[in-house]
Specification:
The chain is of the alpha+beta class and about 375 residues long. It has helices at about 1-20, 195, 200-210, 235-255, 270-280, 305-325, 340-350, 365-375; strands spanning about 35, 50, 55-60, 70, 75, 80, 85-90, 95-105, 105-110, 115-120, 120-130, 145-155, 160-165, 180-185, 220, 265-270, 290-295, 325-330, 355-360. Helix content is about 30%, strand content about 25%. α4 packs across α5 (about 270-280).
């Protein structure tokens, strides 16, 4: 009997050493095997592991490291066990996609067990927390389109640049059809890969088209990083020139498009929303549909840009209202960092009698919000 008790006690100590982890307030010890590897892990990587209550377990072997943290919007301290493994169980993480990095003795690096994504201005790890709010970006047995990566020469930057293009199901088989085009822009610290990977654009569009909720369309995802920074007027002007002089002509030449403003839409999140405001409002001869997601002129930094646009709208309001079939503006609830500036902008548009539609989906300044935005915006286009 004593030997049995001793063995059980020894096994418990061994388990705590192997499974040991930092315990933030409110977090409870989990039983190994109660979670599942994150879908964003590289092949065969067990950790990060997502528990049923959306806590996340991290386990990394680095015996020579002195301090390790996980930066997941908030910094979590990890604890090293006797075998040299660093362990952590977070508190519950919100649904959807999240960037994170490992802080290894203060140096931010990507987790070798996770897929990496370009976000936050660098390569970072990402984790998907299962989403219970719908299946609109689930993989389903429906006809699938494709994502193409194309290079084109920019006469604005005098360099080769890259963009991603979603083509709808049937594009390669029904070769006499022409398609409307949605130009879809990423946010600051991201690039043309954002909507195609983090944004789940292909899955969202495949499912919408299969359900006859959206028209078959091309979705062009360019790199909007131009000038000395996408938030300044030089960057905004450079992108306006880029899309007018280079991107649209390239797409119209190489793809079967409907080459009219009524068959073009421009939308973007955050910084991409600013590009949409700047390029779209001033170029209603190019675009009849605009989507401004989690954005709004940044005050006071962009006061001059905003004032100039409001003056333009004051003088050209009827023209803009007549040309735009839809100006769709959304925010990610009050926790969205763009919420205040966005609502200041809405107030000015009301004063100027500019027509728009407003949509709000709680979740902050995050990819779950923008995926939901695309799901609701795309069905409104080209009707």
């Amino acid at each position: 009997m004593k030997r049995t008790i001793y063995l059980l006690f020894a096994l418990l100590l061994t388990g705590l050493s192997v499974w040991g982890q930092a315990m933030p307030p409110g977090a409870a010890m989990h039983m190994p095997g109660s979670g599942v590897p994150a879908s964003s892990n590289i092949r065969s990587a067990k950790y990060p592991e997502v528990l049923p209550d959306h806590r996340v377990v991290f386990r990394i072997k680095a015996p020579d490291v002195q301090k390790m943290q996980v930066d997941l919007g908030r910094k979590y301290d990890m604890v090293k066990d006797r075998a040299g493994y660093w362990n952590l169980t977070t508190d519950s993480i919100g649904e959807g996609f999240h960037y994170y990095t490992l802080l290894v003795d203060g140096l931010a690096v990507a987790d070798p067990s996770s897929e990496s994504f370009y976000g936050m201005g660098s390569m970072a790890s990402g984790i998907e927390i299962p989403f219970s709010g719908g299946d609109y970006y689930a993989e389903k047995d429906v006809p699938h389109g494709g994502i193409r990566i194309k290079r084109y020469y920019s006469t604005v930057t005098n360099s080769w640049r890259q963009l991603y293009i979603y083509t709808p199901p049937g594009y390669d088989t029904v070769t006499d059809d022409k398609y409307p085009v949605l130009y879809l822009l990423h946010g600051g610290g991201e690039d043309e890969r954002g909507w195609a990977t983090q944004g789940k654009t292909a899955l969202i569009m495949d499912n919408l088209i299969a359900a006859s909720k959206a028209k078959p369309m091309l979705v062009v995802m360019p790199d909007a990083n131009l000038g000395a920074g996408g938030f300044g007027e030089d960057g905004l002007k450079a992108f306006e020139s880029e899309i007018r002089q280079c991107i649209i002509p390239f797409i119209d030449k190489n793809y079967r498009t409907r080459n009219t403003s009524a068959s073009r839409a421009l939308a973007g999140l955050s910084m991409g929303g600013l590009n949409t405001l700047y390029t779209g409002i001033y170029n209603t001869d190019l675009f009849s549909y605009l989507g401004v997601l989690s954005s709004g002129w940044i005050l006071p930094a962009q006061s001059g840009i905003a004032s100039a646009q409001y003056d333009y709208l004051r003088q050209n309001g009827p023209k803009v209202n007549g040309a735009l079939k839809l100006l769709w503006i959304s925010e990610g609830g009050k926790e969205d960092i763009a919420y205040k500036n966005g609502h200041i902008m809405l107030g000015r548009l009301d004063e100027l009698h500019i027509r728009y539609s407003y949509y709000e989906y709680p979740g902050g300044h995050t990819w779950p919000v923008w995926r939901n935005d695309l799901y609701h915006f795309a069905p409104l286009l080209f009707r």
